[in-house]
Design a protein that fits this description.
This protein is an alpha/beta fold and 572 residues long. It contains 21 helices and 13 strands. The strands form 4 sheets. A 4-stranded antiparallel β-sheet has the order 1-2-4-3. It has a 4-stranded parallel β-sheet with strand order 6-5-10-11, sandwiched between helices. A 3-stranded antiparallel β-sheet has the order 7-8-9. The structure holds arginine. Arginine (ARG) binds next to helix 12.
């Protein structure tokens, strides 16, 4: 149990007695004692009593003797709480013997759908897809570890009018040649070549149009060629996922085309519910609360004038599939912030139709852009969009180089392993350590730096602890008695006990920078502890106790990084 929780549970009844109703004791870490509670100050006005009196009365009623060594009123009416060493030691021992490091599994597991990555067939993944993939995968790992049933959905862009032109281009190239180009990840040149022909050549344009009709009509050969495009692209995306070390598999692809059969039903149902209105020849829903610049209601176009269905219809059909067939009660969409309004309108339309109702909720986990060091949208030297694989390869190459420079004796295999873990880790961490909604700058120097709030710093901290154990020649004994005499030992104990609280917070908000910040604090606190408290040079019980603290730190760093999708290495 984390301490904030424990103290809250002890203070809440006392506050309730004094205030005559429920009160949140507002317990937090304190620079003056271990913890403080500020709730008396806020109550003073309501109760018409001086805050110090209230705080003193709460202390009279609270049962704290077995938890706190000291509890006193201070300043204008704070409660300062100092935790007893033996309480702290007992809690740390509890962690040491717990594989889950104090983090409980969800009491009421849910089915959660995480819609993420979602690149488009025959198009290069760009940095937006990188962020979606990294954030979505962290969400998957966390929710899965907490015991939820997690369904990954890779909502591949595999349908729509561009496929006419793409298939025609494929026919021109010849199947073998096209397959080769696509599986090599030459997606952008394939797409661009098709586009150029489409823009320049009337007959190609006409062929493309007819091809769309054949595709929608289910023409056998057209379908086969379309599947070829999809499969080659999927194959390529899987190589990116492998390089990126994410949990997405080939079974997680469920592209837009998977919902084709349900689109008609969506429109019919909306019509039956009286939610459908014709506007400029299209069938639209006008979800309440969405207006344009001049205050006119904004349409969500579910069927276009030409009878075709668009992006919103597919998302509505997918939402119904996720709630009705998969039984999901939490729907997450990890997609860039430019699509915020789209999702808000889709969710509003689904609510109006009764397809989305409590306890089921849908959340758009939006994110900002990745910028270059010039503060502008990340662009390649030629000015085009940056190819994701190139970025990942550069990260690995740079990290491998750094590992070699740091340790010239490293054999090639180890250098490659470290380079991969650190390079990919650095990319993911730079993303996850920032407030999700904010843009961030891709700055190689900073993200690969061994100090600062970076993956390499944390990975290095982990490997240093592992080297302590190699030198000690033993593992920690979880049942060893925990001794907390030094302030640096107590500080470390408090950080270790904070893991569960942080994980709970991230489960709720899916803001991974809280976890990143926590791991960084933990590593720094450990480093201060390690400077002041000799481990290997200590002897007897003290050494045993400190080995447990070191081991717990390593395990927590490793688990925390694992939740972010980042590997640890034993040596760096
Ligand atoms: N394929 C889209 C894109 O590249 C992202 C799809 C996101 N998911 C969804 N259910 N709409 O922008």
């Amino acid at each position: 149990m984390d301490l904030e929780r424990l103290l809250t549970d002890r203070l809440a009844p006392a506050f309730a007695t004094v205030a005559g109703g429920p009160v949140d004791p507002l317990v937090r870490r304190s620079p003056r004692a271990d913890f403080q509670s500020d709730a008396a100050l806020a109550l003073a006005r309501r109760l018409g009593r001086p805050p110090r009196d209230i705080a003193a009365a709460v202390l009279d009623h609270a049962e704290l003797d077995d938890v706190c060594a000291a509890a006193e009123v201070s300043g204008p009416g704070f409660l300062n709480l100092t935790v007893a060493d033996r309480t702290l030691a007992a809690l740390v021992s509890g962690l040491a013997g717990d594989d889950r490091l104090g983090v409980p599994t969800a009491p009421a597991p849910e089915t959660v759908v995480v819609d993420y990555s979602a690149p488009n067939v025959a198009k290069e993944m760009h940095v937006g897809h990188l962020r979606s993939t990294v954030i979505g995968d962290a969400a998957v790992r966390l929710l899965d570890w907490l015991g939820h049933r997690v369904v990954r959905v890779n909502h591949l862009g595999d349908w729509g009018t561009p496929f006419g032109m793409l298939i025609e281009h494929l026919i021109d190239l010849g199947e073998a040649e096209a397959a080769q180009e696509l599986s090599m990840g030459d997606l952008d040149s394939f797409y661009k070549a098709a586009r150029v022909k489409f823009d320049a050549d009337q007959t190609f344009q006409e062929r493309s149009r007819q091809r769309v009709v054949a595709l929608q009509g289910g023409d056998e050969r057209t379908r086969r060629l379309w599947r070829l495009l999809v499969e080659q692209s999927e194959r390529y995306f899987l190589t990116v996922y492998a390089l990126l070390d994410v949990t997405l598999t080939r079974n997680d692809f469920r592209g837009e085309s998977a919902y084709n059969d349900r689109l008609g039903g969506v429109v019919d149902e909306l019509d039956r519910l009286g939610l459908l209105r014709a506007s400029d020849g299209a069938d639209c829903v006008f979800p309440p609360g969405f207006t344009g610049r001049d205050g006119e209601p904004l349409p969500l176009i579910v069927r276009k004038g030409d009878g075709g269905y668009g992006y919103p219809a597919t998302d509505l059909a997918a939402l119904r599939h996720r709630t009705d067939d998969l039984g999901a009660t939490r729907l997450l969409y990890v997609v860039g912030l430019p699509q915020r309004q789209h999702f808000a309108m889709v969710f509003a339309a689904a609510e109006a139709a009764g397809w989305l109702r409590p306890p089921t909720r849908a959340v758009h986990l939006g994110f900002g852009s990745i910028l270059g060091t010039d503060g502008r949208m990340l662009r390649s030297r030629a000015g085009g969009s940056v190819k994701l694989v190139g970025l990942l390869e550069e990260a690995v190459a740079r990290a491998t180089e750094l590992a070699r420079a740091k340790n010239p004796e490293l054999d090639a295999e180890s250098a490659a392993e470290i380079g991969r873990a650190v390079g990919i880790g650095a990319i993911k961490y730079a993303d996850l350590a920032t407030d999700r909604g904010r843009d961030y700058v891709l700055d190689w120097e900073r993200m690969l730096s061994l100090d600062g709030n970076t993956a390499p710093y944390l990975q290095y901290a982990y490997s240093r602890i592992r080297s302590v154990f190699r030198r000690a020649g033993t593992d920690a004994r979880p049942e060893a008695e925990i001794l907390l005499a030094e302030p640096a030992e107590r500080a470390l104990a408090f950080e270790l006990l904070g893991f569960a609280g942080v994980v709970a917070e991230v489960e709720r908000t899916l803001e991974f920078h809280h976890l990143a910040g926590y791991l960084h604090r933990l590593a720094s606190t450990f480093s201060a502890f390690y400077e002041r408290c000799p481990v290997l040079r200590a002897s007897g019980e003290l050494r045993e106790s400190r080995l447990v603290l070191a081991d717990l730190t390593a395990r927590t760093l490793r688990q925390g990084l694992h939740l972010l999708g980042i590997r640890t290495v034993e040596r760096m």
